[in-house]
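Quick one, tokens below. Sequence please?
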């Protein structure tokens, strides 16, 4: 049950970051930071370490 909640929270955070990534158009540096944060979350959802 805890693992399911963990993956739901991770997917929610990844969705929020993806939404902000799509909306951000002016600053390239922020896009890189969003990608940097999204990679570990995506790897966790794919169960890669």
């Amino acid at each position: 049950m805890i693992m399911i909640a963990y993956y739901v929270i991770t997917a929610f955070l990844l969705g929020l970051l993806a939404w902000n990534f799509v909306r951000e158009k002016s600053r390239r540096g922020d896009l890189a930071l969003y990608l940097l944060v999204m990679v570990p979350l995506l790897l966790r959802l794919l169960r890669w370490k």
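The first helix runs from residue 2 to 23. The radius of gyration is 12 Å.
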